[in-house]
Amino acid sequence: xxxxxxxxxxxxxxxxxxxxxxxxxxxxxxxxxxxxxxxxxxxxxxxxxxxxxxxxxxxxxxxxxxxxxxxxxxxxxxxxxxxxxxxxxxxxxxxxxxxxxxxxxxxxxxxxxxxxxxxxxxxxxxxxxxxxxxxxxxxxxxxxxxxxxxxxxxxxxxxxxxxxxxxxxxxxxxxxxxxxxxxxxxxxxxxxxxxxxxxxxx
Length: 202
Known about the structure:
Layout: H1 19-32, E1 36-41, E2 44-49, H2 53-69, E3 74-76, E4 81-84, E5 90-92, E6 96-99, E7 110-111, E8 118-122, H3 129-143, E9 148-153, E10 158-166, E11 169-177, E12 181-184, E13 190-193
Parallel strand pairs: 4-7, 8-9
Antiparallel strand pairs: 1-2, 3-6, 4-5, 6-8, 9-10, 10-11, 12-13
């Protein structure tokens, strides 16, 4: 199995790919392929490239920003996998997961999202980012009951806050241009400035 340029490598409707089969594929990719990670979102097997330096810089900025604002939560940026989607058949690796500091203690590679209050994705410069980050993941995260999905969209120069999840996706979306203050609803309940993203968004 070969992943090329971050494009999806296989698609399926509901299966033929079962989650157990996907997990075997994911282990093989982790073992044999450098520079990519695989995910199963909405029945579609896709890959995302290992992030560039600015991508990591944005996540570090957000981690340091959120820590003093809500000390009971921590932004995990270690590549923890989550079981997402309807019946939790999907497998995703969010760029960041806001959850209690010990939320994944003892968890396996694909943890339950029950303790997760927010997932974070930072768009990448690959051909699949539009479908993956803007279409598929909001639905998968909402169906898993994750209260907030935060998309930092570098190409569009904006931050999009998705909240009020249900089976159809997130019902409340607010978009903020880089430089504006962003408000995250409860259970996070903080407001922060995004002026710094103007220098990190390209």
